[in-house]
Amino acid sequence: MQQKHLYEYAIVRIVPVVEREEFVNAGVILFCKKEKFIRMIYHLRDDKILTLMPEADLHEIRENLEAFCKIAAGEKEGGPIAFLDEAERFRWLTAVRSASIQTSRPHPGVSYDLEKTIDTLFSEMVG
What we know:
This protein is an alpha+beta fold. Helix content is 34%, strand content 26%.
């Protein structure tokens, strides 16, 4: 019988003008402590971002999202944070911040298949 995995996830949001607090969902970070699993996927919707802020620097936003992915994956290019364990990386990525890339508060869930779950969450929350 397949085992259920307790996980946490957060939605990655682009906030082009932090003071207005408008955002566009861009990705999902999923973390499972028991399986030492952490993964982030994203898709940047240029049209939605430019609607909120026509002069947004899409290249810089993409670079920052890639940095998030590298940190989540534990890649050395992610800098010192990428060398932390999975739980610490997840907590760092989902920490409250006032920046153009923010995350929702973490939410819990249970899954038999973490890869399928992150794909489903991404499809539902980002599109």
